[in-house]
């Protein structure tokens, strides 16, 4: 089903929390020494609770187990392995791995690992098929202990994780990649605004005015400052009618009154 992006985002974070919680419950269920209670004595997959020492005691290396107990131990290990891979992939996709072909493949793998973990979690209860619980001659009472109850809850959590993983898609951007991308966008926008303000032709052009005396006549020179636009520089340096630059064309015209002698080469003439 096609859920809105906002809804998928919320459900994705719910999946994120549930898969971590399920992983913790799975470790507790397998490592605890209180999965099965037989006549008020607690037993686990790999250890048993000692009333005298008040702590968990690992089974001896040469201890013998029947088929049901060995199967439950194997299913417990498989459940932890599949759930650990699924949790690692989901957390990595949401937090670190960018969107791509690898992300889609890992998400599809998680859709297979989560239901497999739920099945292995159910099969862990095959420990109740051991000889002590099934043989009438022992007359024992077998019931679920604390870790067994946790494993029962974990089955429902894994089913919920499977449904959520199938409903939502991997995120377009992981959490940390989003923060990096946002910082890059902000700096890029600031740079564009700064470039636009520098090249705005409507802004006034600052100029410096300098008066220079050439051949006894004052000449006004105008120069644009470095922050002026290229158009302003072209305008200020536009050549005059006589072919000279704009600076030279601003020289005031020579006014001649009365007789003056001009020298041209070696000759003289009178105006």
Fold topology:
Elements: H1 5-31, E1 36-38, E2 41-43, E3 47-50, E4 55-58, H2 67-95, H3 101-123, H4 131-134, E5 142-144, H5 146-167, H6 175-198, E6 207-214, E7 217-224, H7 230-236, H8 246-249, E8 261-264, E9 267-270
Antiparallel strand pairs: 1-2, 1-5, 3-4, 6-7, 8-9
Helix pairs in contact: 1-2, 1-5, 2-3, 3-5
Report on the structure:
With 271 residues, this protein is an alpha+beta fold. 52% of the residues lie in helices and 15% in strands. The protein has eight helices and nine strands. It has helices at 5-31, 67-95, 101-123, 131-134, 146-167, 175-198, 230-236, 246-249, and strands at 36-38, 41-43, 47-50, 55-58, 142-144, 207-214, 217-224, 261-264, 267-270. The chain has a three-stranded antiparallel beta sheet with strand order 2-1-5. Helix 1 packs antiparallel against helix 2 (67-95), helix 1 runs antiparallel to helix 5 (146-167) and helix 2 (67-95) runs antiparallel to helix 3. The relative contact order is 0.11. Residues 178-184, 240-250 and 260-271 have low confidence and may be disordered.
